[in-house]
Amino acid sequence: MAKQTDVNEEEDWNHKQTLKAAVHYTVGRTCEEVGSELGVSFNKQVIAALSELTMKQITVYAKDLEAFAKHARRTTINADDVKLLVRRNPDLANHVKEMAKGIEKSKDKEKKKRARKRKISEAGPSKDDANTEDVQET
Known about the structure:
The chain is mostly helical. The protein folds into 2 domains: 8-85, Histone, subunit A; 91-122. Helices cover 85% and strands 0% of the residues. It has 5 helices and no strands.
């Protein structure tokens, strides 16, 4: 059993290191883009500090999102939890609300599409469908 725990801990550590590397790379690329626009450069210590700060903030956000979902007696984090997380940043809150609206609209369209397909399949083939099949066979 101790061996299995060690393996899980090592996998977790490897996963965290992979995430840290991805965040560090992304922060570095973002610094390059911003630096080229502003005509400045960021040294490696600044990029490392920003990466570490980003990882710590992401960890705090993850814990908060889990707590919001748990408080609502859910096991899945949803858009309402994210809205609650960003509520103190008006610009970000508006952006998240707009994104959530867009996602809801696309979900509604998909539901309507599925309902139409279901309705058509339940109705069976129409006369036009039968005529089309006859034409295709000849």
